[in-house]
Write a structure and sequence with these properties.
single chain; flat; mainly alpha
Length: 86
Amino acid sequence: MVKDESTLKLLRRIKQSKMIEGDGKQFMEYLEDLSKENYEAFKIHGAEMNDIHKGYAQCVDFLLECFANCEKEPNITEQHQLGSMA
């Protein structure tokens, strides 16, 4: 659950496609905070919650990776190029 008004405003701007300078960095920081909070909860909860925390971590890590790499040019392999010619 989002805990502060500035994060709610950030998410609202992203949803409405009205982003301003610095929103990407702020969103990455938000995801990193979620990751840290999940890790702390993982250490506190019992083993029965491990799968939940691992799944949560995978989702957040995936989003962080996507945002970190979104400006990189895609690496198109020869196999993909050949597949598109068929």
